[in-house]
C-alpha cells in the first residue's frame, strides 16, 4: 500500500519560475529519498503558502521523510508546518483517474 503525505506552510516566496529555478536541485534530491514515488509541488502566492503532495511506498518512508523535511524547512526559517499522512483508497482513486495503480491493474 502507498501513502500520501500532505505538507503546507506559510512562505513569502519565491513562487512560479523563480521557485522552480531556486529549488530544482532540491527537487532532484527528493527523487533519491527512500520509498519516494512522486511529488506535486503546490503554491499560492496570493496567500503566501507553499507545500506539496507526496506519494511514498510505505507509511514509515513518509514519516521518515516528513521528519527530515520538517527539520530542513525549519532551517529555512519556515515555521507553522501543517503535515498529514493518509492511506489511499485505491479502488475509488482508480475510478476517479488518480495517478495511483491498484494491485488489480
From TrEMBL:
Entry annotated with the keyword Oxidoreductase: yes
Stored InterPro entries: Dimeric_a/b-barrel (IPR011008), YdhR (IPR014910)
Pfam families: ydhR
Single GO molecular function: monooxygenase activity
Keyword Oxidoreductase: yes
Keywords: Monooxygenase, Oxidoreductase
Descriptive protein name: Monooxygenase
TM regions (residue ranges): none
Amino acid at each position: 500500500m502507498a501513502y500520501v503525505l500532505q505538507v503546507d506552510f506559510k512562505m513569502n516566496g519565491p513562487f512560479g519560475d523563480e521557485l522552480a529555478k531556486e529549488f530544482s536541485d532540491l527537487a532532484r534530491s527528493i527523487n533519491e529519498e527512500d520509498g519516494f514515488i512522486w511529488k506535486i509541488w503546490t503554491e499560492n502566492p496570493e496567500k503566501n503558502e507553499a507545500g506539496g503532495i507526496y506519494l511514498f511506498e510505505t507509511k514509515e518512508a513518509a514519516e521518515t521523510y516528513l521528519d527530515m523535511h520538517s527539520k530542513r524547512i525549519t532551517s529555512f526559517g519556515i515555521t507553522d508546518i501543517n503535515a498529514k499522512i493518509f492511506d489511499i483508497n485505491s479502488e475509488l482513486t482508480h475510478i476517479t483517474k488518480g495517478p495511483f495503480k491498484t494491485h488489480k491493474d
